[in-house]
Amino acid sequence: MRQKTGWTGWPKPYGAAKRRNCCGCSSIPAVHQRNKRPAADFVESPVIPVFRTRRGGQITYHGPGQRIAYILMDLRARGLSVRDYVAGLETWLINALQALGVEAVRRCGRVGVWVPDAPGGEAKIAAIGIAVRHGVAMHGIALNVDPDLSAYDAIVPCGVRDYGVTSLAALGRASTLTQVDAALLSAWPDAFGALSITETRMC
What we know:
Blueprint: E1 3-5, H1 13-16, E2 22-26, E3 31-34, E4 50-52, E5 60-62, E6 66-74, H2 75-78, H3 82-99, E7 105-107, E8 110-115, E9 123-133, E10 136-144, E11 164-165, H4 177-192, E12 197-199
Parallel strand pairs: 1-4, 2-12, 3-4, 9-11
Antiparallel strand pairs: 2-6, 3-5, 6-10, 7-8, 8-9, 9-10
Helix pairs in contact: 3-4
């Protein structure tokens, strides 16, 4: 299995963090990201590149059809704990999904955002993975818009075996990335207040 370290498409954390608070929305090529090497990450040999990353959380998939937001936020300046920040990200996603016609929830002990009535049972629609350096949070979220969900078949997404993954398309709520961006932008102030949001295309 080929592993690579880092993902060069992301902004350099500390250089970008001079701005302290910003959010970039993007799409990236298909990759698996993991922060360590337990064999339990995989249920079969992956066929797409595997990158090691320094964020929290376990292995996940990123690729076309997702909306990824890479967020830099000065938690100290905002008086936020890591737990408060993660809860804020969940609130942001839940509110954005509601605007897109999907009722989503948070679950105690399972970071991310979940759809209780997804086909086949409760499933994750958005993943969260962050790292904090010198009080500045980085990395962010991945919202499944219309990805190839079979890409998750080779892994145990976020280390959760008992629940699947879903997407807006799989729920019958097909949306363009432009529509998703508009919902995310509109939902942000209720979670965190004003923030500079920029859009970057990476693929």
